[in-house]
Amino acid sequence: MKVMLITKSQLLRAVPELNRARLDEFVASLNQWAISFGIDSPLRMAHYLAQVFHESQLLKRTDENLNYSADGLLRTFPRYFNVAQAKEYARKPERIANRVYASRMGNGTEASGDGWRYRGRGYIMLTGKANYERFAKSDVCTEDVVRQPDALKQFPLNQVVAGWFWETNGLSALADSDDCDAITRRINGGTNGLADRKFLLRRLKNEFGVK
Asked: Which among 125, 106, 2 has a CA at the least distance from the CA of 52?
C-alpha cells in the first residue's frame, strides 16, 4: 500500500510542537520525494518522521547544534574532552566541531576546519566530508555541496539529503521490522535521544493508524 499524501494537519495533530515556519516547505518536499526514496508505507513514514523530527529539533534546525556547555561536552563526547579541555571549548561550536569530527569521516585534522565545514546538515544531519562527497555524486544532488555545504540546510535539499541517507543506509527494511533502536544507531552512531525518538514514533503511528 502506497503511503497517503501527508498533510500539515496530520503532522500537527501528531506533533503539535513542530516549528510551523518550515512546515509548508517540509510537507511539500516530503510529498515530492518520499516514495522515490522508498518511504512508501505508513510504518516507514512514521519511522522516518520520528527520526527527522528528533534530529531537527522538531524542524527548528537544519544544521547541527554544537553549542555545548562543559558538562554537555563531558556527557556527549567524553573521549574527546577532559575537564580542563571541556571548560576551554565550552560554548564554542566551531572549535567543538573541529575537534570531535577531526581525522574521521573523510575530514582533515582539527586545524583543517573540516569538522565545522562538514558538520551535520539537512533534516537527518549528514556529517563528514566523505558523506558530503557521496551525496554530491548522487543523481538527486543538484548543488556542489562539497564547495557549498550550507546548501544542505536549504529547501529542498534539506529533505532530499535525508531521504537519500535513509535509502542508501537501508533504513526502510529496519522500519518494516519496527526496529527503532537499529535505525537510531544507523543515524546517530549510538542511541542518543532514543526515548524521544520512540515517543515521537508512537504519536506518529497513532496518527497514521499503525499498530
From this structure: 125
